[in-house]
Specification:
Length: 255
């Protein structure tokens, strides 16, 4: 575990330096390829969609399902819950809301949100790019195990920074927006309020408060700095197209 934490911290710390290589003028790293060099870390929707489209084009037409029909992703969920010291229920309920436990949409393609969030945990391309080397993930963000691990790592980082249930708001809207909400500088988007309201009661939280989970692990992922571009890696994302339809009661909708 100590080696994992050190590798994560080292990899994340080196990203801004790596972005300056190759002869280009050194600028802050931005996984959305949208940083304009003037301090604007605004969400680059076009870049996110384009990168998700490239990943989607390389996704496999089918993936192995490790568990039984009643709990298809259970083995991967348990692995991620153990690795990042999270309750399994948190991962299950986030996955239920994000993708309905489905790998593919009605169009038969790997499930992707209108803003580019990918797979079972609806991980944004910039987030996967950043976590991939740190966690030793593969090149396909739609691969169920890697997608769940990436989502769990990000969820843990948001929990360590904001506690429960605000980690849900950060997963949906980004930590920068939640930090602004806590400072009184910005309200949470309606989508995010609905998101928290749907999931929080299912994991034992009825209102916004910041309780602390036993044995916090702040070294699993370094908490993003307020100006870090990762703060908006999930901005406006994490919701599969189709509005706020109630999530399925069980994984019966998976492919």
């Amino acid at each position: 575990m100590m080696r994992l934490r050190l590798r994560l911290a080292t990899a994340l710390a080196l990203l801004p330096l790596l972005a300056a290589c190759g002869g280009a003028a050194p600028v802050a790293w931005d996984g959305r390829r949208g940083y304009d060099g003037r301090g604007d870390y605004g969400y680059d929707l076009a870049a996110s969609r384009a990168e998700a489209g490239a990943y989607r084009a390389l996704a496999r037409p089918a993936y192995s399902v490790p568990g039984p029909p009643e709990d298809p992703w259970g083995p991967h969920i348990r692995e991620a819950a153990t690795r990042f010291a999270l309750p399994e229920s948190w991962l299950r309920e986030v996955m239920r809301q994000e993708s309905g436990f489905r790998l593919y949409g009605a169009d038969g393609l790997p499930i992707t949100s209108p803003v580019g969030a990918m797979g079972l945990m609806q991980v944004m391309p910039a987030t996967y790019d950043r976590l991939r080397p740190a966690l030793g993930l593969g090149p396909d963000p739609y691969e169920p195990r890697d997608n769940i691990l990436a989502g769990a790592a990000y969820l843990r980082a948001m929990y360590d920074r904001f506690g429960a249930p605000l980690f849900l708001a950060a997963y949906n809207a980004g930590p920068d927006r939640v930090a602004n909400y806590l400072s009184g500088a910005q309200i949470l988007p309606d989508e995010t309020e609905h998101y928290v309201a749907r999931i929080a009661p299912r994991i034992g939280y009825a209102a916004l408060r910041t309780d602390v989970l036993a044995a916090p692990q702040p070294d699993v992922l370094a908490a993003p700095r307020p100006a870090d571009p990762l703060d908006r890696a999930y901005a406006d994302g994490g919701l599969v197209a189709g509005g706020w339809a109630p999530p399925p009661a069980c994984p019966a909708g998976y492919v």
